[in-house]
Amino acid sequence: RRRRLAPLNEDNGRFLLLAALIAAYLSAGATVFSALESPSEAAAQLRWNRTLHNFSRIFNISLPELRAFLRSYEAAMAAGIRVDALRPRWDFPGAFYFVGTVVSTIGFGMTTPATVAGKVFLIIYGLFGCAGTILFFNLFLERIISLLAFIMKACHERQLRRSGLLPPNFRRGPAMSGVGSLVGWKPSVYHVLLILGIFAITLSCCASAMYTAVEGWNYVDSLYYCFVTFSTIGFGDLVSSQNAAYQNQGLYRFGNFIFIFMGVCCIYSLFNVISIVIKQVLNWVLKKFECRCCPKCHKSSTRLSRRNAITPGARLRRHNISVDTDGQYDSDTEGRRLSGEMISMRELTASNKVSLAILQKQLSETANGYPRNVCINTRQNGFSAGVGALAIMNNRLAETSDSR
């Protein structure tokens, strides 16, 4: 018999769909930016060529000599030399600002090491610094989600008391600490997204007001700088705290550091919450594709289920669950593939135990105010729930599974 190709599983389908959407998103963005910025670039190039020829004609300087001088000026700019007085780039405050942009992956580019030793040290320094900073961002994400969960749970308990579903004298005991007094309750990802979005917007507006007042930028440029910096894009066309002197310079540098630090942490957390919402959209799209693209498979599976009225083996494979009950499946039931044509009393008993356990679990969760369909993989390993920030969000927030 010829082997049929295995159907594309959900993880691979989600990955390919996201890759296609990212490619389309990049193409659309490139088209829009090209249409917006290309005319301005062509006009600026035309003005510069006209200015260059006029300068060469008026001061009687040949174009090759003038271009050589401008190349030297560009090299000086790359080294950090400006016509106006700027603060020293490699004193301790400047170097501290530089390493902060390195480990946070902002990378403005206004300061770069010029020596070979500095470049080699940067490779080693950035390797461990960036890894440690990403770990710090994940730990910050975990703490901020825990704080939001605590606050939202307190508000939820207050609503339950007002509605009479929770006794007025209810108190959290030591056994009910940690995850909380309401068994199975988790904060909604959409509520967390709203709170983090409001906090990020407020932080950006406050920082933009400071940059407008101190740096002299207009408010739109300040907002643009905040987003580019907080999201660690770091173009470097606008960089704060670069003048030689400021009024209340120490206070401004401290405020600049606090705003950048809090902004990067907040936007990182916000990006991870948005990624959960994007994942939900991808799951919804995959379900729509699954319902429309495979009618033959659905017809064959429907005929098979009608022919075999009782097929615990197929039910076990379809649900693929693992519930802690007294009397797990025997080794022969788990080890061999059930055909669905002939069943034994042992298989029927195991199926009934699983169904009863699922029913009891759903009833328990419904009684505690958290009705959900349970679908837990039997063969879990250390990476089954995901790793990194996505795993943190899935473990601590509700409405992130396909069954909801």
Task: Please describe what this structure looks like.
It is built from 12 helices and no strands. It has a domain at 9-83. It is 66% helix and 0% strand. It is mainly α. Mean pLDDT is 76; it is low at 1-5, 173-181, 303-343 and 366-384. The chain has helices spanning 10-58, 63-78, 92-103, 116-163, 189-215, 219-230, 249-293, 295-307, 312-319, 331-335, 345-367, 388-396. Helix 4 runs parallel beside helix 12, helix 5 packs across helix 6 and helix 5 runs antiparallel to helix 7 (249-293).
Average pLDDT, rounded to a whole number, is: 76
H/E topology pattern: HHHHHHHHHHHH
The percent range for strand residues is under 5%
Separation of the first and last Cα atoms: 40 Å
Largest sheet geometry: none
Structural class designation: mainly alpha
- Per DSSP, the total helix count is 12
Q: What's the gyration radius in Å? A: 30 Å
Query: Can you tell me the overall shape?
Result: globular
State the share of residues found in helices, binned by percent.
Answer: 55-70%
Poorly predicted runs are: 1-5, 173-181, 303-343, 366-384
Give the tally of β-strands. 0
